[in-house]
Write a structure and sequence with these properties.
The protein has 4 helices and 4 strands; from the N terminus they run H-H-E-E-E-E-H-H. It is α+β, with helices and mostly antiparallel strands. Helix 1 packs across helix 2. It is elongated and about 85 Å long.
């Protein structure tokens, strides 16, 4: 069906090109057919553009080379707009406070202080375990203001 629509658009343009070559050039007013041609051309160009974007996306050309080094391990909602997020950066973990218009580093964890290890995360550690571990760390007083 898409191929038929593309061929129909191309046949309309080829007729218009041949008609323009055969007719003597004379000033004329804009007609509905002109707007249809312009609209068809615009749709054709946008279709090709989005087809190229889709192809690049499917090929994986839009991913960052550092995407594997940074991951969100867990998050905890503290209110309507506030969240605490645990972010993995290489061998460090950052505890971030996120609110509209602001991201603040609450604590940096390294080595044995890490809340969630990669092995445990791959096995499916959920937010509830993250929340429990966060509460334990807050109770111990390791996170300072």
């Amino acid at each position: 069906m898409r191929l038929f629509a593309l061929l129909a658009c191309l046949s309309i343009y080829s007729d218009a090109i041949f008609a323009a070559v055969l007719e003597p050039s004379a000033p004329r007013t804009l007609m509905t057919a002109d707007f249809m041609r312009w609209g068809g051309g615009l749709i054709l160009v946008l279709g090709i553009f989005f087809l190229c974007v889709w192809a690049v996306h499917k090929a994986g050309g839009l991913t960052s080379p550092t995407a594997g080094q940074m991951r969100v391990l867990a998050g905890l909602s503290l209110g309507a707009k506030e969240r605490v997020v645990l972010l993995q950066l290489g061998n460090k973990q950052l505890l971030l406070g996120v609110s509209p218009g602001r991201v603040e580093a609450l604590h940096t964890l390294e080595g044995e202080d890490c809340l969630i290890f990669e092995d445990a995360h791959l096995k499916g550690v959920g937010e509830s375990q993250f929340a429990q571990k966060l509460r334990q760390v807050i109770k111990k007083g390791q996170i300072s203001d």
